[in-house]
Amino acid sequence: ELRTPLTNIKFYLSLLEKQSPDLKSRYMDTLKRETDRLHLLMENLLLLLRLDQGYTQLSMKIEDVRQAVWAITDDCTSRPNNKQIVVHCTLPETPVYAFVDNQLLHRALGNLANNALIYANSQITIAMCQKGEDGMAWTGVSIADDGPGIPPEERKQIYKRFFQRESTPDWQSSGAGIGLSIAQEIASIFGGTIECVNQPQEKGSTFILWLPASPDKS
């Protein structure tokens, strides 16, 4: 998995020396995409190691979850992609608080968004939701794609480390099979969970990161 983006980067760097300005611009987009992919993979592997060893450097605070969602949305819209994925984001006007480590929250949402970008055909939709369950209030961040959906036989496997879905549309753009596993582990650290819902007629998947809601920042 590490070798693939490195090989692509070396290949396109060699092509840059010989091409016209228009092609150079396209190749630069590819280089940025592959570099981002490599960076995400390395960060996930390092975080996985820290989680296995016992993540002790938590900085848990009451945070406005919208800030992390805005940041992830900006990252998705600015990231070069071959499929020209459109990113829709709808957020409430008032703050939505949860007790989280901001860095880990960004990582969990980033992994869910990256998964959506891999499987989406044309768009992903990011939104927030709330629910009450067992006497608790929950805040959710949903990230939906319009891809092929997840077959029933794979739904219990997707959070296992290094699990690769057979329905991956482009194996070269897929990850190492640890993004969803890390997101689920982070959700557990926060006292939350991740819910996966298939869209009607199997038209895409929605992943919801559920967090225990905090009433305010006071």
The major pleated sheet works out as: 7 strands, mixed
What is the average of the pLDDT values?
83
**Stretches with pLDDT under 50, minimum 5 residues:** none
Give the CATH H-level superfamily.
Histidine kinase-like ATPase, C-terminal domain
CATH class bucket: Alpha Beta
Q: Whole-number radius of gyration? A: 18 Å
Helix-residue proportion: 40-55%
- What global shape is seen? globular
**Global structural class:** alpha+beta
Number of helices: 5
Number of strands: 7
Assigned CATH architecture: 2-Layer Sandwich
Domain count, please report it. 1
Explained architecture:
The chain is α+β, with helices and mostly antiparallel strands. The protein has one domain: Heat Shock Protein 90 (2-Layer Sandwich). 41% of the residues lie in helices and 24% in strands. Strands 1, 2, 3, 4, 5, 6 and 7 form a 7-stranded mixed sheet that branches. β6 (193-198) and β7 form a beta hairpin. α1 (3-16) packs antiparallel against α2. The radius of gyration is 18 Å and the shape is globular. The chain starts with a helix and ends with a strand.
Key attributes of the depicted protein:
alpha+beta; Heat Shock Protein 90; seven-stranded mixed beta sheet; 5 helices; globular
Brief characterization of the structure:
41% of the residues lie in helices and 24% in strands.
